[in-house]
Write the structure tokens for this entry.
Amino acid sequence: MATKLNAVYDGKVFKPEGPLELKANMRVRITIEATEIEKSKPKKRSFLQTALSLKISGPPNWSTRLEDYLYEERNTA
């Protein structure tokens, strides 16, 4: 007899989401397969992908005057 069921693991035991037609103390074999919700974890992104997603804008000469912009606050104090 094969039965498929959904269950939730609470860190110690599996809790079925519905009733089971099993006798008490009946031995069973369990195969665990994560549901689609658990399988769809966010993919890791590279630093460049993250940086590009921030959509930071600035002056066109950032690359040539980076030091000036980085230390601008210190120079004015």
User: Anything to note?
Assistant: The chain has four helices and two strands. The mean pLDDT is 80. Helices lie at 36-39, 47-53, 66-70, 72-76. Strands lie at 7-9, 14-16.
